[in-house]
Design brief:
With 158 residues, the protein is of the alpha+beta class. The chain contains four helices and five strands, in the order αββααβββα.
C-alpha cells in the first residue's frame, strides 16, 4: 500500500499567507471577517502595479458587458428567426483560468413582489451573466491549502 503524501504549501504561498493574515481579522463571536481596504494591492508581486490591476479589472468589466450585449443581440436575432429556440448560452474564456457565461432566455415570468396583487410579469430577452474566477482547479496549492485547513479543523474542532 502506498504512503499518503502530506500536503505542503510552497514558500511563496506561505509568505503570502503571512502577509494576508496581518491584514485580516475575525470577530470570534460572530465569525465575521474583515480585511484591510488595500490588502490585495499591498501583496502584488514585483512588476504588477495597482494601475495595471485596475486597468485589467476595468477591461474585465467592459468585456463582460460587451459580451452580454454582443451575444444577447445575436441570440435575440436567432430566437426571432427560430420560434422554438427558448434559450441560448455561450461561455467565453477570460485570461488564464477565468470565464464568463451569458445566458439568454426568450422569456421569464416573475411574481412582482412590489405589486399589491403579486402580479405576474413576463420579461423578454432575459439575460443573465455569470463570471467565474478560478483560483485553480482542485489541485496544487489550493488543494493543499484546503487539506491543511481541514487537518487543523479535525485537530481543533472535533
Amino acid at each position: 500500500m502506498s504512503e499518503v503524501k502530506k500536503p505542503t504549501l510552497t514558500d511563496s504561498v506561505l509568505e503570502l499567507s503571512k502577509k494576508l493574515a496581518a491584514g485580516l481579522s475575525i470577530d470570534k463571536d460572530t465569525g465575521a471577517g474583515t480585511a484591510t481596504a488595500d490588502l490585495y494591492n499591498t501583496t502584488l508581486p514585483e512588476g504588477l502595479t495597482k494601475d495595471i490591476v485596475k486597468a485589467v479589472s476595468e477591461h474585465n468589466t467592459n468585456f463582460v458587458a460587451a459580451g452580454a450585449h454582443a451575444f444577447g443581440m445575436m441570440a435575440v436575432d436567432a430566437m426571432a428567426k427560430n420560434k422554438k429556440l427558448e434559450n441560448a448560452s455561450v461561455t467565453i474564456p477570460m485570461g488564464h483560468r477565468d470565464s464568463v457565461t451569458h445566458n439568454l432566455a426568450r422569456s421569464k415570468t416573475f411574481i412582482n413582489q412590489m405589486s399589491e396583487n403579486k402580479d405576474e410579469v413576463t420579461h423578454y430577452g432575459k439575460m443573465t451573466s455569470t463570471l467565474e474566477v478560478r483560483a485553480g482547479k482542485n489541485g496544487g496549492q489550493l488543494k493543499a491549502a484546503r487539506a491543511l485547513v481541514a487537518e487543523a479543523g479535525l485537530a481543533k474542532l472535533k
